[in-house]
Every structure is written in structure tokens, then in C-alpha cells.
Design brief:
The protein is of the alpha/beta class and 409 residues long. It has 9 helices and 30 strands.
């Protein structure tokens, strides 16, 4: 795009009330519809806005600390993206990211979720108020917990989610909190201590504190626990063949539970969130974007499980050469391989529409009677304890259905 074209395109948006202090340094491509950037949005020098799917709501600030590139992203009201690269991601009201961000497809930050500088996300979902410090790589995760900006789940600076294995696979998504209880915004926060790491696929429950400087390689499913891993045994050494799998039970089950949570979240957006996210064009774009992000997450997780299944035939060849290999572990691999075609289809389809129908109807009856003009966060805060419990049971039934699809015994 020539300089004169850049200036003319930026000027078109300025004429509609978008604040562009240095229009000659801002690129807005022809695919971005003028009505998709709200009046009053501030776009600072060096920023690039691209893609027909881009929507930027009122009071957003782009590139205040460093140039920002935004492509096919949806921003709600009062979102601040201080600098970096943002592609096919959705940011709900008052979420924020510091400069140096690298945000890739599948990312969804809900209301008031924030990250500081130099943070990398991909296929990452944060529920409201979740906070990430600086110098963090946190891909292929869903994190919930906390009740407000003053009581939120936190990821300490210099934290890593390890989402790639020495066996060259990524069936490693981790669930920190969960969807059925997390959406009710009434759970204890989770704290992941700085300069640490989590090896996926893992499940971490509410109230957990992972000690700073530690690497967590296990599930933490008892609430309100401080976990600091013990030192390694045998000097930390053991034989390892990257092509020979042993137990895959935890890997597969955790992935199924993760996918079940994504199906529950998709249902939540479709039947619950939509009420407060279709009142104007910008919030509706965020609702559509969030649905796309969740759907892409389901596709990604099924794809990565498929790659794991593809490795089972060779692993089983290696197993056959080991006379002392435990029969139960062999049956796990055989079962997963043989069932995968059917499992793949059922994971993609999700649970039946009537899953948890009684609890669903109990929750929705109160939800639909509420004030549509309230914000989503206000509306959730006003739901009665009984309806919250029913709503969580409804969403948990979706998770449980998905988790029950595979059985190897």
C-alpha cells in the first residue's frame, strides 16, 4: 500500500471519529469496514489494522506503548492492546495486554482478563479477571477462577506451559479451573508461581497454589492445596525411547475432559452469553468471534489427539518386542487406536442437545427472566445460588458425557 493510500485510508476512519494522531504511519487495509471501528477508538503510530473480521469497539486503545498489528480480531469496549501482534483472537470488555504481545489464533480473553508485557498466547482462553504477568508463554490452556479484579487467578512472571513433548506431539492442553463452575465467577483463585512451569496435559483445581520456581508434572485435583514437587528419584535419570509409549490413559482422559469443557463453554455462549452480547454490533462481533475461537479449539484438540493415535501402530510394534511390557498398558494403546475413528466423530459432534436438560431449563428460566440491559458480569452475580448450582450441573453433564466416550478396560 502506497503512502498516499495509507494516509487516505486512515483519514477515512478519522472522519468517522477514530482518533489517529499520526495517520501517515497507520495502515488500515481495504478489507476493514469503516463501521467496524467505533468512534473514539485511539490508534497510535506504527499500528496495522487488517482483515474483514476485525471489529474494534468503543474506548479501545491500540498501540499506546509500541506498534500493534491487529488482524481479524474482535475487541469489545475499553480494550487496551499496548503493542505486538494479534491474529484471529477475541478480547471482551476491558481486557488488556501489554507491549510485546504475540497472540495467535484461538485466543479468547473474557472481561477484565489482562496480561503484562511480552506474553505469548495461542489457543488460550482466560475467564474474567484472570491475570498473567510478564515474559510468559501460555499456549493451549483454559484458565478460570476468582471473583473480581481484586480476587483473581494469577500466572506469575516468567511462567511456561510446556505444550510440546519430546515425542513430538501436542496432545497437551491443560485445564486450570474448569468451565462448569468457572463461568459462575464464584470460585477460589488459582496461583501459578512465577518462574515456574506446567507440563501439559494437566488439570489444576480451584484454590491451588503452585510454588514459585517449580515445575508441575501432575494433576492437582484436591482444592486449596499448595503444591511443591518433590526432588527427582534415582538422580532423575531413566531409560527413554520417544517412539515407545507406556501409559496413555491420563493423556487421553485429560484431553477428553478438556474437549468436554470446550463443548460446555460453546453451549454457554450459545444459550447464555448471547443474551448480553447481541445488543450492539461490536458486542455481537465479539460473541461471534468467541464462538469461532471455541470451535477452533475443539478442532485443534481433536487434530492433536489424532496425531497421537497415528503414533500408536509404531509404538505397539515396539511394545511387541518387549516381553515384560505390562499388558494393561498395551491394551490402552490398542483400544485407543481401534476406537479412534468413532471417537473422533463423537468428539467433533459433541453431546446430545438434551444433555442435562432439567438443570439447563432450571438455570435458563431464571436467566431469561433477568434484566437484559445488565452486563454479563452483573447478570451472573445476580443469579441465585440454586440456579448457579443447576447451571454448573448442566455444564458438568456435558463434560462428563465427553469424558465417558473412551473406555479401554
Amino acid at each position: 500500500m502506497a503512502v498516499t493510500e495509507i494516509i487516505m485510508n486512515a483519514s477515512l476512519f478519522k472522519d468517522r471519529g477514530v482518533v489517529i494522531p499520526c495517520p501517515e504511519s497507520v495502515e488500515i487495509d481495504d478489507l476493514v469496514h469503516p463501521e467496524n471501528i467505533a468512534p473514539g477508538v485511539v490508534i497510535h503510530a506504527g499500528s496495522r489494522i487488517r482483515g474483514a473480521g476485525t471489529s474494534i469497539g468503543p474506548e479501545c486503545i491500540i498501540g499506546a506503548d509500541a506498534p500493534a498489528t491487529i488482524e481479524n480480531c474482535q475487541l469489545g469496549q475499553g480494550v487496551s492492546l499496548m503493542g505486538g501482534s494479534f491474529t484471529s483472537a477475541t478480547f471482551l470488555d476491558r481486557s488488556a495486554m501489554g507491549s510485546g504481545a504475540h497472540v495467535r489464533p484461538g485466543t479468547l480473553l473474557e472481561e477484565e482478563a489482562v496480561a503484562a508485557h511480552t506474553v505469548g498466547f495461542k489457543q488460550t482462553i482466560f475467564f474474567p479477571f484472570v491475570t498473567a504477568g510478564s515474559l510468559i508463554n501460555f499456549c493451549d490452556c483454559l484458565m478460570a477462577g476468582g471473583t473480581s479484579r481484586k480476587n483473581h487467578s494469577e500466572i506469575g512472571s516468567a511462567y511456561i506451559h510446556f505444550n510440546f513433548t519430546p515425542r513430538q506431539d501436542k496432545a497437551t492442553a491443560s485445564l486450570i479451573g474448569d468451565v462448569p463452575r468457572g463461568v459462575m465467577l464464584n470460585q477460589s483463585p488459582i496461583f501459578l508461581g512465577g518462574q515456574g512451569g506446567l507440563v501439559g496435559p494437566a488439570r489444576i483445581t480451584y484454590g491451588t497454589v503452585l510454588a514459585a520456581g517449580s515445575i508441575c508434572r501432575k494433576d492437582v485435583l484436591e482444592e486449596n492445596q499448595l503444591y511443591a514437587p518433590p526432588p527427582p528419584v534415582n538422580g532423575g535419570f531413566q531409560n527413554f525411547d520417544p517412539e515407545l509409549y507406556r501409559s496413555i490413559h491420563r493423556i487421553v482422559v485429560n484431553n477428553f475432559i478438556y474437549i468436554g469443557n470446550l463443548h460446555a463453554l460453546h453451549t454457554w455462549y450459545r444459550l447464555v452469553r448471547k443474551k448480553h452480547m447481541t445488543l450492539d454490533a461490536f458486542s455481537e462481533a465479539c460473541w461471534t468471534g468467541a464462538m469461532d475461537r471455541i470451535e477452533s479449539g475443539i478442532v485443534e484438540r481433536v487434530k492433536q489427539l489424532g496425531k497421537l493415535a497415528d503414533k500408536m501402530p509404531h509404538s505397539l510394534e515396539l511394545v511387541a518386542a518387549q516381553a515384560d511390557f505390562p499388558p494393561d498398558l498395551r491394551r490402552q494403546q490398542e483400544s485407543f487406536l481401534n476406537q479412534w475413528p468413532e471417537l473422533k466423530q463423537r468428539l467433533q459432534e459433541g453431546p446430545p442437545e438434551n444433555t442435562g436438560i432439567e438443570d439447563r431449563d432450571t438455570f435458563l428460566a431464571e436467566w431469561e427472566a433477568g434484566d437484559r440491559e445488565k452486563t454479563h458480569l452483573d447478570a451472573v452475580a445476580r443469579v441465585s445460588p440454586g440456579s448457579r448450582s443447576a447451571g454448573s450441573r448442566w455444564l458438568q453433564s456435558i463434560v462428563d458425557f465427553t469424558a465417558s466416550l473412551w473406555s479401554w478396560k
